[in-house]
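Box S1 | Example of a co-folding query
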Amino acid sequence: MSEAKRDAEVRPAGLTGSRPQGAMAQLSHEQLATTQRETLEAPRRRYGPGAKALFALLDAVYGKPRTLSKFKVLELVARVPYQSWEQVAYIAITHTHQRPDLARRVFDRVTESRGQEDNEQWHLLILEEMIARSDSREGWIRFTLFPQLLAFVYYQLSWLLYVIRPAWSYRLNADFEDHAEHEYAYLVAEHPEWEEQPFESVFAADYAEVDSVADLFRMISYDERVHKNESLAAMAAPRFS
Ligand SMILES: [Fe+2]
Ligand SMILES: [Fe+2]
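Box S1 (continued) | Returned holo structure for fe (ii) ion
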């Protein structure tokens, strides 16, 4: 292959496949509208104390209104459980390398976690892009320092719960994802003007080609539902089985 041709085929990270790490599904506008309706009608899970404390803290620091900046903090924290599970799983692989079947199952779990983590990363990148384009100003303490501290503490909690009893960590994440799914669905309902606003983003081709900003957030809400359901499924078989 010529050097020029090879260079032409080099694509930025995340663009190495046709649909590398985008949304968890490809849904039409009608399907997205249906999923939003389902979410709005579905009762929230009965959140555990850890999740309740986290949501109360977020409301206390960022207020109750659903702002893009608040969702950005949510997405920063959302990646953390997957990172903690990945770390535990890699340690487990080290200790199970003499049992290839088990090591393989653990690695499959790592791959699944990474897929969800990457999906959360797209959410975060899209929100950061939107916030950068808007005039909203974000203070350093509330939107840089505090989220990092929160993510650190949440990582430790997810890690510890996972080591003690994985189902506890999955449950905390299911609560978190359920909350995110509902919050995005309500966000769309609060912004009817987004129905007509096209989703224009440098990440559109990577994440999802949707008709409007409203459908973008419906898509993200649906992703959170998929994450929730994957955590609920993992709760049923929590030890690398
Ligand atoms: Fe997310
Ligand atoms: Fe999520």
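The domain at 25-39+47-236 is CATH 1.20.1260.140 (Ferritin). Residues 1-20 have pLDDT under 50 and may be disordered.
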